Amino acid sequence: MNNLNYAIIGNCRSAALISETGNIEWCCLPNFNSPSIFAKILDQNIGGSFDIIVDKSYNIVQSYIRTTNIVSTTYDNGTDCFEIIDFMPRYHDGNNGKYTPPDIVRYFRYRKGNPEFTINYNPKLEYAKFETINEDHNEYIKSYTAEGEYDSIYLYTSFNNSDILNKTKISLIEDSFVLLSYDQKILQQTLHKQYLKLQKTKVYWLEWCDKNTAFAEYNNEIQRSALVLKLLSYDKTGAVLAAATTSLPETIGEVRNWDYRFCWIRDASMVIKVMSNLGHTSTVKRFLNFITDIIPDKDEKIQIMYGIDREKELTEKVLEHLSGYKNSAPVRIGNAAYIQKQNDIYGILMDVVYQQFTMFNISLDNSEALWTIVRSIVRIVQNNWQKPDKGIWEIRTEDKHFTFSKVLCWVAVDRAVKIAKIVHKQDKVKQWQELANEIKADILQNAWNTEKQTFGQFYGSADMDASVLLMEPYGFIDANDEKYVKTVLAIEQELCQDGLLYRYKNKDDFGLPSSSFTICTFWFINALNAIGKRKTAREMFNQLLSYSNHVGLFSEDIDFKTKRLLGNFPQAYSHLALIETAINLSEGEITEDEEILEAIH
After folding, report:
1. What percent of the chain is modeled with pLDDT above 90?
2. How many domains does the chain have?
3. Which of 167, 201, 354, 566 is 20 to 30 Å apart from 520, CA to CA?
4. Contact at 8 Å (CB) between 447 and 439?
5. Pairing relation of β-strands 152-157 and 170-171?
6. Which residues is 306 bridged to in the sheet?
């Protein structure tokens, strides 16, 4: 059973998760990284939620309104029927800006008969640490904290406030609304106003999707994934979140639970590269502004991650009063990984900067700021590439010379050379090319395991790691190079299980993972496609797509046995890899020659 059957709504300021039965079970206001107001997903008893309760006669169906981030949940028992349309307003405000209030609109659309339901409105502010008091103020229902940090929210509705507060059964006879806002409203809230917000928000998303590049196949999947990535971008600063949630476990009952409401330079840069390829330049420009803002000093080291408001200290805390998703404690806020050293981030970021120089007309002011970052990154790589680090998987114990980190150090310098050529800095071209050659030679000598005939997880290791599959797409090695082909096939042999991939199998500081890291399977499918096993790649991709939830969303992990989604949700990493893989697979049809090649392999 797939237990992460949630749809996400949002407006690039915050987001909410709505269960397949129409209940809001996760939301933080006013921003993504604010304390939760609904957190039932992290504690069934005290987390708080906004539920719509109907009797068992109703069949409930949920879907997105096509090419939007607006969710429709329909309740129909054959005789009586109504629909709830959930969205967070986002549209052009007429002043070259966007209207993105910290609001959720629940638009109740009457369909037929005499539908009845009960609203269980149960906000629990500040991560449900203390009691939340609900009061009827005639114009609205105000909810506020009784102790601890003060916080409050406001509920406006066309229903009777008392029917909501007393959980009285409501008979729907006409369209109605509930508006939840972090802010007290100045203007009177009417059904007509909510209808206008709905239509304007729908137009915004339709126009945004219309800018997407179209491909031969998989356009619906690419579109939905692009919409997810857009939702996870934070307008205010240009940061891109890894996911909208915290502490959804990688494995039920274990402790790999992390807060992902932050901007990892690696994840965000990969997202931005994909968004560039889809034609969304404004998201790209905002992220590059985020980067130039967080690296003000030429000698300042780049952290692996930042807060979405550019915070540099992300102290990790445990919320011991919450039982966790499916009782998988601990629930964490903050993330101690921000102090880790991961040398791969420089290459991934530099790859994005290089893409901007080649794809877009960059202003002189912008290009000079980016050129300063390029030179700073090369200087950092030059001083650090020979040192061990924590690697892409943030292993919290001993530092190692991870192959992926070394390859991405090469990528950083290789792209810097290409940028230097674009801006006609010939002295840097020669100097940096020598450094790139030195790093590449070091990798080929030390990462290649001659006995096993594969690239290992780290220098001197015979263990396989899915991240080395990226050696080819980043241009370090050709897809038809015998060393790469052997590595791909060895990874298939050792890390693939029932069409899903382990990140690695050697035990880390938490033991052997029992779930597949979703992005790794996408990487593997791309690698199969690259070495000529296109038929197998396509079959595996179609199978993987079938593991998404009911509205096409993916989390971070998939359980090997049950195929249920696990980990933080929805995951930017998973959706950017889905887009890349779909684009690669849709670029050509499978030929007879390729089927023969697969048979040879």
Report:
1. 80
2. 2
3. 354
4. no
5. unpaired
6. 263
Give the pLDDT band of residue 326 (cuts 50, 70, 90): very high
What span, in angstroms and rounded, lies between the C-alpha atoms of 428 and 271?
Answer: 29
Starting from the edge strand earliest in sequence, which strands make up the sheet with 71-76, in order? 59-64, 71-76, 81-87, 103-112, 176-181, 152-157, 141-145, 132-136
Query: 191-210 vs 219-231: helix axis angle to the nearest 10?
Result: 120
Is residue 266 domain-resident?
Answer: yes
Dist CA 467 CA 404 (whole Å)? 6
Contacts for 390 with CB less than 8 Å, ≥ 6 apart: 340, 341, 342, 396, 399
Residue 513, in any domain of the structure: yes
Instruction: Write the burial class of residue 79 (CB in 10 Å: 0-12 exposed, 13-18 middle, 19+ buried).
Output: exposed
Residues 84 and 227 in one domain: no
Cis peptide leading into residue 30 (ω within 30°): yes
CB distance 183 to 135 below 8 Å: no
Instruction: Check residue 501 and give its pLDDT.
Output: 95
Rounded-to-integer distance, Cα 277 and Cα 298, Å:
30
pLDDT of residue 56: 97
265/392 same-domain check: yes
Residue 1 lies in a domain: no
Q: How far apart are CA 514 and CA 560, in angstroms?
A: 7
47-66 pLDDT, tens digit per residue, is 999 999 999 999 999 999 99
The domain boundary, picked from 209, 242, 269, lies at 209
Burial of 415 (0-12, 13-18, 19+ CB in 10 A): buried
**CA nearest 474: which of 515, 429, 413?**
413
Asked if 269 and 281 count as a contact pair (C-beta separation under 8 A), the reply is: no
Question: What is the b/e burial string over 395-412, where b = at least 16 CB atoms within 10 angstroms of the residue's CB?
Answer: beeeebbbbbbbbbbbbb
- Predicted confidence at residue 494, as pLDDT, reads 94
Q: Which helix (H) or strand (E) holds 129?
A: none
Give dist(CA 519, CA 250) in Å, integer. Answer: 13
Q: How confident is the model at residue 296 (pLDDT cuts 50, 70, 90)?
A: low
User: How many Cα neighbours within 13 Å face the side chain of 393?
Assistant: 29
599 secondary structure, DSSP code: H
User: Cα–Cα distance between 346 and 375 in angstroms, integer?
Assistant: 11
CA–CA separation, 164 and 140 (whole Å) = 11
Give the HSE-up count for residue 239: Cα atoms under 13 Å, Cβ half-sphere.
27
3-state secondary structure of 573: helix
The rounded distance, in Å, linking the Cα atoms of 85 and 69 is: 11
Longest dimension (CA), the chain: 78
Q: Give the structural domain span for 355.
A: 211-600
Of 209, 197, 318, 312, whose CA–CA distance to 263 is shortest?
Answer: 312
